[in-house]
Design a protein that fits this description.
heterodimer, A: alpha+beta, 2 domains, 3-stranded antiparallel sheet, two-stranded antiparallel sheet, 7 helices, 7 strands, 55% helix, B: alpha+beta, Butyryl-CoA Dehydrogenase, subunit A, domain 3, 4-stranded antiparallel sheet, two-stranded antiparallel ribbon, 9% strand, elongated, binds zinc ion
């Protein structure tokens, strides 16, 4: 890999790739953009995180996030119930955006990664690996679970004066899922996958 | 890589680029760097704009297509939507003990402040009020300076671009707050919360500014006048 000529994706400068020490980051000589990171952790760790992420995703959606109690009234909320109620109030577009960014896209990202990495681990890239990885990279900015978690925190504070709020098991699963997704983003080196795909000439 | 064999020595990573003379760029060498997998490709004779990357299959472009026009269009729409997003209520709270109360983005921040959680109020104020404005201002600045600014403070402009891409997503926080409040506060006899139109405009501003940041091509910051974007 090192010695290859690469172009910076932010300023187009041509430069020669160098080998990196573990944990090292290669930055563009002109604009300072991160060109690539040392893929020390390898794809196995990403695959492990992906499997953990899929399990946490199921837990995060199977249980209530928060429970509210006012006097004798008890109300539970989950991610999907919130979106469902928004749609019910005539806010279908908003509901769709919430479901996409906080559930569908993160799930799609995890599923596609499992589809890419599992066959690669067994030595043979699955058909459509390039297309799947392209989708994963394009979807990256639209998976917003960490922002959703901040939203839950703000909502809890807003309601704390009005009612008693009990944290549900899904919130813990959500917290761990956010950590796992951050771990995937920082340890996935797309070059490690691209390098194993053939170039059609 | 055979495609780059015609080049004189490009600078190594970490070494400063040689100042005199134009810096060697992919576009300058007649090459295209794939937007998706960053493979360096020599485009077919007919031009790069209808070819696909031989490795990942993405469409090849030397620069993002129509970057100026698209980014301006998203920004103008975002500015128009920002007004109702800030002035219209994003939700209504109806309680038997307090009547109906309409909240805008700003009054929601003020309410957080009154609960005594000022760090959280500061985060929400920054994410939902400051960040969208900042993104729009920075992108307008980048568009104007890419057209007319030449080599003016390129490193700072590159840094600003990276910042706008990184913080933009956090503006979504108020949309999620409304969703959770709607899901939780629905005790018909005591209290319930409904989402209002302001939330739709607000979400639209966030999405539009994200599209704007993604359609801007940071390479335009560095392009010399001679190799104007295709
Ligand atoms: Zn660069
Ligand atoms: Zn490609």
């Amino acid at each position: 890999m090192h010695g290859t000529i690469i172009a910076c994706h932010e300023c187009d400068l041509l430069q020669r790739a160098v080998a990196l020490p573990p944990g090292g980051v290669a930055r563009c000589a002109r604009c300072g953009a991160v060109l690539y990171r040392h893929g020390a952790t390898g794809l196995d760790q990403v695959l492990a995180l992906t499997v953990a992420g899929l399990i946490l995703f199921v837990l995060a959606n199977a249980f209530p996030l928060l429970t509210m109690r006012i006097e004798a009234n008890v109300q539970q909320a989950s991610l999907l119930s919130g979106a469902w109620l928004l749609a019910d109030q005539g806010m279908a577009g908003l509901a769709l955006l919430v479901v996409l960014t906080s559930a569908v896209i993160p799930l799609l990202k995890l599923t596609l990664l499992a589809y890419i990495l599992l066959p690669l681990r067994l030595g043979l890239p699955a058909p459509g690996t390039a297309r799947a990885l392209r989708a994963v990279l394009a979807l990256q900015p639209w998976a917003m679970m960490e922002v959703f978690l901040l939203g839950v925190l703000v909502a809890m504070v807003k309601l704390s004066s009005m009612a008693e709020i009990v944290v549900g098991p899904a919130l813990y699963a959500f917290g761990f899922l956010v950590l796992v997704l951050a771990g995937i983003t920082s340890s996935l080196d797309p070059r490690a996958v691209w390098d194993r795909l053939e170039i059609r000439r | 890589m055979s495609a780059a064999s015609g080049l004189s020595r490009p600078p190594g990573l970490g070494a400063p680029a040689p100042e005199p003379g134009p810096a060697p760029t992919a576009a300058g060498a007649g090459l295209v760097s794939c937007h998706c997998c960053h493979l360096l490709v020599r485009p077919p004779a007919g031009g790069a704009d209808h070819a696909a990357c031989p490795r990942c299959g993405a469409a090849l472009h030397s620069r993002k297509p129509d970057s100026f026009g698209r980014t301006w269009a998203y920004l103008v729409t975002a500015v128009i939507f920002y007004v109702p997003a800030m002035t219209l209520p994003i939700m209504t709270t109806v309680t038997t003990f307090g009547g109906a109360r309409k909240d805008t983005v700003l009054s929601g921040v003020y309410y957080l402040l009154t609960t005594g959680m000022w760090p959280l109020a500061a985060i929400v104020f920054f994410a939902s009020v400051v960040v969208p404005v900042l993104k729009i201002v920075v992108l307008v600045l980048l568009l104007l300076s890419s057209r007319h600014g030449g080599s003016w403070r390129r490193h700072d402009r590159a840094r600003l671009y990276r910042l706008t891409e990184a913080v933009g997503r956090w503006s979504m926080v108020d949309v999620y707050v409304v969703t959770i409040l709607v899901a939780l506060v629905r005790l018909q006899a005591l209290a319930f919360i409904e989402a209002e139109q302001g939330a739709v405009f607000f979400a639209a501003v966030v999405v539009l500014t994200m599209f704007a940041a993604r359609s801007f091509d940071p390479r335009l910051i560095w392009d010399q006048k001679s190799e104007s974007p295709s």
